[in-house]
Design brief:
Blueprint lengths: L1 E8 L3 H21 L1 E9 L16 E2 L12 E4 L7 H10 L3 E4 L2 H17 L4 E2 L10 H8 L5 E7 L2 H13 L3 H10 L8 H4 L2 H15 L9 E2 L7 H10 L1 E10 L7 E10 L11 E8 L3 E8 L3 H14 L27 E9 L4 H13 L4 E8 L3 E8 L4 H9 L7 E10 L3 H10 L3
Parallel strand pairs: 1-2, 1-4, 2-3, 4-5, 5-6, 8-10, 10-16
Antiparallel strand pairs: 7-9, 7-11, 9-10, 11-12, 13-15, 13-16, 14-15
Bound molecules: L-homoserine (HSE).
L-homoserine (HSE) binds next to helix 5.
């Protein structure tokens, strides 16, 4: 029987799940894979804290012990943050230990350097738990979509914000109230700013884009937005227009340029598979030139789903050729004018007072005059204000700006928002984008 001795760095939500999973399904690993996985040491901040994990006390240490690496096969890093995690796992690789990590920030910022370090020392660096909780997204991109040229990734990659948006949309609950619940469930980061301001999803998108497109995108080049600006009125407005508001991580090839990466509040058409992904569920919709489109859905945060990905990685050490695709991005051929995808754009206008049917008709006619290709106009009335929203097929920022500055709308516009939309024509879009690279 092959032995895998594990050093666990961190014993918070995910670390506890990893410990429990190894205890609970250890026999299964012996039977199925002939693997005897055992936790040998656990690095924690506070060894006196009570942990409901039988048998863990003698394994606890508050110091990273390099001497223990000689008796370790796999270091499992679930501490989060860049330092000291990077120092510890680099030391581990240099001592010949394989590394399994769920640390998205570390991989987004230093993934390439760590991959190089792993190659140089002949060890594996596995990170399925870093993106999408229990969904095997990394494995699918690394192993099962190798033949495809990926043209677009659209993902709901943060469980906390998806939970908040779902609860707001479903029950009209307040942001702060739902955030507290997400924290209590162990979904949110230690500092939930990373979730609600879109950093967490941005890190995950950078990791996926590296695998899908072979591009190592500097984080400063990724558009990033959180969910704090969204209001219940705008969520209702989107629903009336036939869309669901999601914090979407998107990477796509357009017009022969390098992929554009962004995390933004996006209106997802109700017919798109991502619109139905609710609560703590995450999903990734991959479009490729051969496969057309694939959607993977599962629980994106929480103790056991994330532990599942981490322990699957432990079980996969030495079993799958996991070498990452080194950056190989080459520019696709530019699309011909007629082949270009036409993005849909949502515009919301917050107007003072009551906005009745007559005013809506007048708004529609003013919009038609500037030829934005307005599909539908809806209103949600608040107290002393109303939101008017519409989706454009011929988006032009300047034309809207002119309209607003010329005060041609029959509204006193207090605020306005512009957000991308993801339409329903998934297969048609995949085809159009695929044309770009053929
Ligand atoms: N805070 C993260 C989320 C945890 O809510 O998705 C999983 O990476």
């Amino acid at each position: 029987m092959k032995q895998l001795r594990v050093m666990l760095l961190g014993c918070g939500t995910v670390g506890s799940g990893v410990y429990k999973t190894i205890k609970q399904n250890g026999e299964l690993l012996k039977e199925r894979l002939g693997l005897d996985v055992s936790v040998q040491s656990v690095l924690v901040l506070n060894a006196d804290k009570k942990r409901p994990l039988p048998g863990i006390e003698p394994l606890l240490t508050t110091q990273f012990r390099e001497d223990l690496l000689d008796e370790t096969d796999v270091v499992v890093e679930v501490m989060g943050g860049v330092e000291p995690a990077i120092t510890y796992i680099t030391a581990a690789m240099r001592k010949g230990c394989h590394v399994v990590t769920a640390n998205k920030e570390l991989l987004a910022k230093h993934g390439l350097a760590l991959e190089k370090e792993a190659r140089e020392h002949g060890v594996e660096l596995l990170y399925e738990g870093s993106v999408g909780g229990g969904i095997p997204l990394i494995g699918v991109l690394q192993h099962f979509l190798k033949v495809n040229r990926v043209t677009r990734l659209s993902g709901i990659l943060n469980g906390t914000t998806n939970y908040i948006l779902t609860q707001m949309a479903r029950d009209g609950r307040s942001f702060a109230d739902v955030l507290a619940e997400a924290q209590a469930c162990g979904y949110a980061e230690a500092d939930p700013t990373s979730d609600v301001e879109g950093y967490d999803a941005m890190y995950k998108l950078a990791i996926l884009a590296r695998l899908a497109f072979g591009i190592d995108a500097p984080l400063r080049d990724i558009t990033r937005e959180g969910i704090t600006a969204i209001t219940l009125e705008e969520i209702r407005l989107a629903q009336k227009l036939g869309y669901t508001v999601k914090l979407l991580a998107n990477a796509e090839l357009r017009r022969g340029e390098a992929p554009t990466l962004g995390v933004q509040l996006t209106l997802v058409a109700d017919g798109h598979p991502l619109a139905a992904v609710n609560d703590v569920y995450n999903a990734l919709h991959v479009e490729g030139d051969i496969v057309q489109d694939v959607t993977l859905i599962g629980q994106g945060a929480g103790e056991l789903p994330t532990a599942s990905a981490v322990v699957e990685d432990i079980a996969n050490v030495g079993r799958m050729a996991t070498r990452a695709r080194t950056p190989v991005f080459t520019l696709p051929k530019p699309m011909a004018e007629g082949e270009r995808e036409r993005p849909l754009t949502y515009v919301g206008l917050k107007g003072a007072g009551v906005i009745d049917g007559k005013k809506v008709t007048a708004v529609r006619s003013a919009l038609t005059q500037v030829a934005l290709g307005v599909q539908n106009v809806q209103v949600v009335q608040g107290e002393g204000f109303a939101w008017v929203g519409f989706v454009c097929t011929e988006w032009d920022e300047q034309r809207l700006a002119q309209l607003l500055s010329a005060k041609k709308l029959p509204l006193q516009v207090l605020a306005h928002t512009v957000r991308p939309c993801l339409g329903e024509a998934v297969q048609a879009e995949a085809h159009v984008l695929a044309t770009a690279v053929n």
